[in-house]
């Protein structure tokens, strides 16, 4: 009887006790030890390796479409078929080494730096992270990855991908290392940072949206909060990651096209077509029309959301395992 009476008393609080308990649990969750940045970095790098191997062909097709000014390719399928027919199946994985390395390092830096920024933006008294802090953390991580990792690796990747032909001897760039050396020799060290401005804008905006959206979708769809000890199923992480990865490409399409054009042009001949980000936007708009600024959008949407789905499926499993094994046990 006593236990039943205790339950009735608790229920008779009119929900006040429940609300207090929920508030206390939320505060405990915010205050509790979070996953360290190095584990976020490890989870991101592992996800990046898997993503690169799966989705490199889409990236090659996207780059070829963005660089096509004369209408050689009539769409994604025609572009892919043309590349396979004229250059072989392996051509769809051109630039895989720098792309995989770039993704591994990029995700490690992105996930790790985002965790550090989030720690800095958390309320010192409650440990709560506001939506504004989450957006700023994502933007900061995107800017950092753009300057340190993304720009030089993508310059090399795009230079390799734009080369056409089967004979290695006839290609200007023999491989990623040779390509980087040639760029530095002909254009100087800053040649590896061609297109840095639009890359910063693209990545900063993308990551601000992606981290915020991923957290929101985890809460809305699966009631999953950071630090609650729950590990999402891979398919759940993939759905959240896919949805979070759809907004950025639409918003940052012009930055991506301009970035590709600036990175692709060589300065070895002296004069260049595009003088910078603003000049490139104006020139593309004047010569090719408004929609040209969103060239390659469909293959981006075919690559980025699935890529985020793959990466988060891996990353969530790694961080979830760490959280359940170490953080949960520490509080038992």
Automatic annotation (TrEMBL):
<feature type="compositionally biased region" description="Basic and acidic residues">
    <location>
        <begin position="19"/>
        <end position="28"/>
    </location>
</feature>
<keyword id="KW-0472">Membrane</keyword>
<dbReference type="GO" id="GO:0005469">
    <property type="term" value="F:succinate:fumarate antiporter activity"/>
</dbReference>
<feature type="repeat" description="Solcar">
    <location>
        <begin position="232"/>
        <end position="321"/>
    </location>
</feature>
<dbReference type="InterPro" id="IPR018108">
    <property type="entry name" value="MCP_transmembrane"/>
</dbReference>
<dbReference type="InterPro" id="IPR049563">
    <property type="entry name" value="TXTP-like"/>
</dbReference>
<dbReference type="InterPro" id="IPR023395">
    <property type="entry name" value="MCP_dom_sf"/>
</dbReference>
<feature type="repeat" description="Solcar">
    <location>
        <begin position="35"/>
        <end position="120"/>
    </location>
</feature>
<keyword id="KW-0812">Transmembrane</keyword>
<keyword id="KW-0496">Mitochondrion</keyword>
<keyword id="KW-0677">Repeat</keyword>
<feature type="region of interest" description="Disordered">
    <location>
        <begin position="1"/>
        <end position="28"/>
    </location>
</feature>
<dbReference type="GO" id="GO:0031966">
    <property type="term" value="C:mitochondrial membrane"/>
</dbReference>
<keyword id="KW-0813">Transport</keyword>
<feature type="repeat" description="Solcar">
    <location>
        <begin position="132"/>
        <end position="220"/>
    </location>
</feature>
<comment type="similarity">
    <text>Belongs to the mitochondrial carrier (TC 2.A.29) family.</text>
</comment>
<protein>
    <submittedName>
        <fullName>Mitochondrial succinate-fumarate transporter 1</fullName>
    </submittedName>
</protein>
<keyword id="KW-1133">Transmembrane helix</keyword>
<feature type="compositionally biased region" description="Low complexity">
    <location>
        <begin position="1"/>
        <end position="11"/>
    </location>
</feature>
<dbReference type="Pfam" id="PF00153">
    <property type="entry name" value="Mito_carr"/>
</dbReference>
């Amino acid at each position: 009887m006593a236990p039943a009476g205790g339950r009735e008393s608790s229920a008779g609080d009119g929900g006040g006790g429940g609300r207090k308990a929920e508030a206390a649990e939320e505060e405990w969750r915010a205050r509790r030890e979070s996953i360290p940045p190095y584990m976020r970095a490890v989870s991101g790098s592992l996800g990046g390796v898997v993503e690169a191997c799966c989705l490199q062909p889409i990236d090659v097709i996207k780059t070829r479409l963005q660089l096509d000014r004369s209408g050689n390719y009539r769409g994604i399928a025609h572009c892919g078929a043309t590349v396979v027919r004229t250059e072989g199946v392996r051509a769809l994985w051109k630039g895989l080494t720098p792309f995989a390395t770039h993704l591994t390092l990029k995700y490690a830096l992105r996930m790790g730096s985002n965790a550090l920024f989030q720690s800095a933006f958390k309320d010192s008294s409650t440990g709560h992270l506001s939506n504004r802090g989450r957006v700023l953390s994502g933007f900061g991580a995107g800017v950092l990855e753009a300057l340190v990792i993304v720009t030089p690796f993508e310059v090399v990747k795009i230079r390799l991908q734009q080369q056409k032909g089967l004979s290695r001897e006839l290609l200007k760039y023999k491989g990623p290392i040779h390509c980087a050396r040639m760029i530095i020799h002909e254009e100087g060290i800053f040649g590896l940072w061609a297109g840095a401005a639009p890359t910063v804008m693209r990545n900063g905006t993308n990551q601000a949206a992606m981290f915020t959206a991923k957290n929101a979708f985890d809460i809305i769809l699966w009631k999953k909060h950071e630090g609650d000890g729950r590990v999402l199923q891979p398919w759940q992480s993939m759905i959240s990651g896919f949805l979070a990865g759809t907004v950025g490409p639409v918003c940052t399409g012009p930055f991506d096209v301009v970035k590709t054009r600036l990175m692709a042009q060589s300065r070895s001949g002296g004069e260049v077509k595009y003088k910078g980000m603003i000049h490139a936007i104006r020139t593309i708009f004047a010569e090719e029309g408004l929609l040209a600024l969103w060239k390659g959008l469909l293959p981006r949407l075919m690559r980025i959301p699935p890529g985020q789905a793959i990466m988060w499926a891996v990353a969530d499993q790694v961080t979830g395992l760490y959280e359940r094994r170490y953080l949960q046990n520490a509080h038992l």
